[in-house]
From TrEMBL:
SUPFAM superfamilies tied to this protein: FabD/lysophospholipase-like, HAD-like, Ubiquitin-like
One annotated Gene Ontology cellular component of this protein: nucleus
BP terms from Gene Ontology: regulation of proteasome assembly
GO molecular-function terms, A-Z: metal ion binding; protein serine/threonine phosphatase activity; transferase activity
Predominant subcellular localization, coarse grouping: nucleus
Any Pfam family: NIF
Keyword Hydrolase: yes
Region annotation Disordered: where it falls in the sequence: 686-707
Localization, UniProt: Nucleus
Protein name: Ubiquitin-like domain-containing CTD phosphatase 1
TM spans (from-to): none
């Protein structure tokens, strides 16, 4: 270990009272001697026999949401604490101490930064504890951590080194952030009365999300039991907001949203994100994980490590007066003597958990509707459907039928449905008259047959979209008076939907939806499977520099529906300012196609919002002809098609985000050639890296030489 003393000091704890078996196979059945472990668990430790509890101590570590700007500032007065932050910065590849001391708060709140910050600050606080209370560590008979604090507890106990623990925390935080970027969620602490029906409350919240927010598979589950009659719920932000507004209707005495930027929790049966585990660096991760297993917990550590709730319970039961809560800030809003150990389950077995709550079987059974069985006839064959419920949507049925027939939902016609919402993919099967025993008929042409007919035409269109002179004749379209008249009419008559007032000094980013960051032709069981990876990342990076507008050549109804399902309205990291639909488009004559085509003239926005112009606006779309009236302002993105094949490896939006950040300080965008955006972004990134390296060398003149 790089730091002598405190991180190795636990090796002397209880050295004369307990024998710690080795972790090899020859001692697999060995039992610790001296202090006794409870029969019902491997990790509840009662301390050495004959020792007065008043002479013992427990060391507890905080979890996420305890971070704050300025954390660690008071620790720097103690020896070696700054060295802890410096070494952590070397491992993490960014200045952690600067982030802790100066923020910004928004960045520090992100999971990928807050968890390493809490872990490292806790480790530095141990050094301060050694100075302030020299007897705290030698008298320690137990340690525990809440959430990410478990990693600090295991590091303190000697299960793995400081650097190994930090790398594990970094990998875990990056994975959770990856999920959070795609599926932002929320958490709420609920204090229950004796008559509370938490299962009914969760079902009502999910129903609310389905009916009011058009979500296909909303999530609202119990994430953890803190103590008797106190649970933490997790799920979509809209579900959390519903619980907070209607909690008294379900016997919930009070509820409080957790101030935490967290990933959306899912039930175990849900499909995981394909790129959740594509995080790094994770050096020696496999080796570290081999050391961390259920048997090792009882034998590997020199100081027993337990679940936070149980170790707190035993501390108060034993009468120990030396419980030590570690900085940054230990939230303590409950009576710890009321902890009900039977309601608390260990999370220690899942060292790389990704916030996957396990809903109780009884609650799940009470809230989930019954499965219905029916058949769909297609091409003379019957397809048996026996995995959907009456609450399942038409889109879910279409997804199953697509897997069986390869007929795309847009090409499906289902005979036998009833009701008024036959074309609404979000309509429940019960609303469409589907029940057990129903017989439907499907009419439609499979994708392969359609592709064979349209392939030649598709290639021609792709060529035209890439042609720089697309739709231009002898006179450039943007100068033709008949089209300028149409634009003037749109400025006068069309009303742009404003969600947030433009901010002073910001540039404008205009984004298309279909094929830009959403595959609207493919079929998936959840909208996340069709959403381009890193759209939340792109908007988060862009927001400090750009106001955000969404312009889709569809109706406003579908814009709201798609953005709502993707939770782009609910993010705390960015806000969408303007929405523009197909009614703002104009038609122009395309000589190559010998037909009229719709385009998106940015002058409609500029006419209603004069602070924006060609000098500070960039438009990103997958179809080049949409830039016909403002070619200088357009950046053509690679279309996001066939999401199931390409989603896992698609990094287009990461590169676009880098480019947007790189050009944010350019005074006039008309000086740029967006066709060369990839080269420009790479050049700026290389230049910035050299500058940061130069600044680092000047700040640390002694670091340049050999170690």
């Amino acid at each position: 270990c790089r730091f002598p003393g405190i991180f190795n000091s636990t090796k002397r704890c209880l050295a004369t009272e307990t024998s710690v078996p080795s972790n090899d196979s020859s001692s697999a059945e060995a039992k610790p001697t001296g202090p006794q472990y409870e029969a019902h668990t491997d990790f509840v430790y009662r301390g050495p026999e004959g020792v007065d509890p008043a002479d013992t101590s427990y060391i507890l570590f905080p979890g996420q949401a305890s971070q704050f700007v300025g954390m660690g500032s008071k620790l720097l007065q103690f020896p070696r604490t700054k060295e802890v932050f410096e070494h952590a910065s070397e491992v993490l590849k960014y200045d952690l101490l600067k982030l802790c001391l100066s923020g910004p708060e928004r960045k520090l709140a992100l999971t990928q930064f807050s968890q390493p910050a809490i872990f490292v600050t806790s480790m530095a606080a141990l050094l301060a504890l050694e100075e302030l209370h020299p007897d705290a560590v030698p008298r320690c008979i137990g340690t525990a951590g809440f959430s990410v604090g478990e990693f600090a507890a295991y590091t303190f106990a000697g299960t793995f080194t400081f650097e190994e623990g930090l790398r594990l925390v970094q990998v875990r935080a990056q994975a959770m952030q990856s999920v959070s970027d795609q599926i932002p969620g929320g958490m709420t602490t609920c204090l229950l009365t004796a008559d509370a029906d938490i299962g009914k409350a969760m079902k009502a919240a999910r129903d609310h999300c389905q009916t009011k927010h058009a979500m296909i598979r909303p999530v609202c589950n119990v994430a953890s039991h803190l103590y008797a009659r106190c649970v933490v719920l997790a799920g979509h932000r809209e579900a959390m907001q519903y619980i907070q507004q209607h909690h008294k209707d379900f016997g919930i005495a009070s509820c409080k949203p957790l101030e935490i930027v967290t990933s959306l929790t899912r039930r175990r049966s849900d499909t995981p994100q394909p790129n959740v585990y594509e995080v790094g660096p994770g050096q020696q991760l496999g080796y570290i994980l081999q050391k961390i297993n259920n048997k090792a917990y009882a034998k590997y550590a020199n100081v027993p490590v337990g679940h936070f709730g149980l170790i707190v319970l035993q501390a108060f039961e034993s009468g120990s007066g030396k419980g030590t809560g570690m900085p940054p800030r230990m939230p303590c809003t409950t009576d710890l003597t009321a902890v009900d150990a039977s309601r608390i389950g260990s999370t220690s077995h899942c060292i790389l958990e990704f916030a996957l709550p396990v809903q109780s079987d009884m609650a799940a059974a009470a809230s989930e509707p019954a499965i219905i069985a029916f058949s769909v006839k297609y091409s003379g064959k019957e397809i048996q459907i026996n995995s959907l419920s009456s609450d399942s949507s038409l889109a879910q049925l279409q997804s199953l039928l697509y897997e069986a027939t390869r007929v795309a939902p847009d090409n499906m016609k289902l005979l036998g449905l009833k009701g008024k919402n036959l074309s609404d993919s979000l309509a429940k099967l019960s609303e469409l008259g589907v029940k057990s025993g129903s017989k439907l008929m499907l009419i439609g042409t499979p994708d392969a047959e359609i592709k064979q007919v349209t392939e030649e035409k598709h290639e021609s269109v792709e060529f035209l979209e890439d042609n720089e002179a697309y739709c231009d004749g002898e006179v450039k379209l943007e100068h033709r008076p008949e089209y300028l008249d149409k634009i003037e009419r749109r400025i006068r008559e069309y009303k742009i939907t404003e969600l947030q007032a433009p901010r002073a000094g910001k540039k404008l980013l205009v984004l298309d939806i279909d094929y830009t960051f959403f595959d609207h032709k493919s079929v998936g069981s959840h909208i996340d499977e069709l959403t381009r990876p890193y759209i939340h990342h792109l908007l988060t990076v862009a927001y400090p520099h750009y106001d955000i507008a969404i312009w889709s050549a569809t109706s406003m109804k579908w814009i709201y529906s798609k953005l709502g399902e993707m939770r782009l309205f609910a993010s705390e990291m960015f806000k969408i300012s303007l929405l523009v639909d197909s009614l703002a488009c104009i038609s122009v004559y395309c000589e190559e196609d010998e037909a009229n085509v719709n385009v998106k003239p940015l002058a409609v926005i500029w006419g209603q919002y004069p602070q924006y112009s060609a000098s500070n606006t960039i438009m990103i779309d997958d179809i080049r002809r949409n830039f016909a009236m403002n070619p200088q302002s357009g950046l053509r993105i690679r279309p996001f098609r066939q999401a199931h094949q390409h989603r896992q490896h698609d990094r287009e939006l990461i590169r676009i985000a880098e480019y947007l950040e790189a050009i944010a300080d350019v005074e006039d965008f008309r000086e740029l050639d967006h066709r060369r955006w990839e080269k420009y972004a790479a050049k700026r990134a290389k230049k910035r890296a050299k500058l940061e390296q130069k600044q680092g060398d000047s700040a640390n003149p002694d670091s340049a030489g050999p170690a």
